[in-house]
Design brief:
333 residues, mainly alpha, Rossmann fold, Tyrosyl-Transfer RNA Synthetase, 2 domains, three-stranded parallel sheet, two-stranded parallel sheet
Length: 333
């Protein structure tokens, strides 16, 4: 029986955070044997804001190494850089011609991010279409998305359905969201109303996967909570709710069990306990990462990327040829 296809990627715009790990990577590891997984580094998406070329190259390598250090197995998954498969950009243009300005204007993330830029690039406005191309190239059944990405998956579905209807062919499979029950949305330690992000101007708001133990504990000790001093999973206590989410995602314990475990215990001890389990888990990842980051593994990382790009290209080329045929382009002789 053919496995269902899952595709997902992360931008190489900096060091990955605990939010990336608990919201994506840890769940990728859980599903990698059950599904046919395509995991890519979204470097084309990264350049919607200016990137220093040398830093982008270095961050791309770091992202790949962190994928593997977190447990993504290159022997059973397709791991590749988005820019290494030219069909992504080519399909993006075709889909642009089947997408409406009004649809893109309603994208919440564009509205949020465009306010932070003086000159807003077309790429920032248009990147949901490239995301649609990413997904549709591989006949993806499911796409792991957080709540903040649901809107982009919906426009992908709309574009695919419109294309199929326009040309009277089922060229594109209509993908569905794959959202884990826990850890899907980890919030900032300093502002629990906002998603944890590596672009946070306050480094105390996020945990880097490469932070050392002392730094991790320090950041959790300073995490914003409230004055109730009761460990309870409640929307009225967003800071504590976020810490419980993190503790649950790491330990696998239920919210009820966590509340019982820390009943009558002050926030100080609870924060340290969360920091300790996070530091323990990240220590294992960091050991693997440091090994991969040594010069002797340079060729190994290159081999993984080359193999992944070759595998991805075969699938993407087939799909793009279907699209070209449907649109009416001449076949190459």
């Amino acid at each position: 029986m053919n496995k269902k296809i899952i595709l997902s990627g992360i931008q190489p715009s900096g060091i990955l955070t605990l939010g990336n790990y608990l919201g994506a990577l840890k769940n990728w590891v859980k599903i990698q044997t059950e599904y046919d997984c395509k995991f890519f580094i979204a470097d084309l998406h990264a350049i919607t804001v200016h990137q220093d070329p040398s830093v982008l190259r270095e961050n791309t390598k770091k992202t790949i190494m962190q994928y593997i250090a977190c447990g993504i197995d290159p022997e059973i998954n397709t791991i590749f850089a988005q820019s290494h498969v030219h069909e992504h950009a080519e399909l993006g243009w075709i889909l642009n011609c089947h997408t409406y300005m009004g649809e893109l204007s309603r994208m919440t993330q564009f509205k949020d991010k465009s306010h932070k830029q003086v000159n807003v690039g077309v790429g920032l406005f248009d990147y949901p279409v490239l995301m649609a191309a990413d997904i549709l190239l591989y006949n993806s059944d499911y796409v792991p998305v957080g709540e903040d990405q649901r809107q982009h998956l919906e426009i992908t579905r709309d574009i695919a359905q419109r294309f199929n209807s326009t040309y009277g062919k089922e060229v594109f499979k209509i993908p569905e969201a794959f959202i884990p029950e826990t850890g899907a949305r980890i919030m900032s330690l300093q502002d629990p109303t906002k998603k944890m992000s590596k672009s946070d101007s306050n480094p105390m708001g996020y945990i880097s996967l490469l932070d050392d133990r002392d730094t991790i504990i320090k950041k959790f000790k300073k995490a914003v909570t409230d004055s109730e001093n009761v460990v309870r999973y409640s929307d009225e206590q967003p800071g504590i709710k976020n810490l419980i989410n993190i503790y649950s995602a790491i330990t696998g314990k239920s919210y009820t069990d966590i509340e019982k475990e820390f009943q009558g215990v002050g926030y100080g001890k609870f924060k340290v306990a969360v920091g300790e389990v996070v530091a323990d888990e990240l220590d294992i990842i960091q050991q693997k990462y440091n090994k991969l980051n040594s010069p002797e593994y340079n060729s190994y990382i290159t081999e993984i990327l080359n193999k992944g790009a070759e595998e991805a290209h075969k699938i993407a080329e087939t799909k793009l040829n279907e699209v070209y045929d449907a649109v009416g382009f001449l076949n190459k002789l």
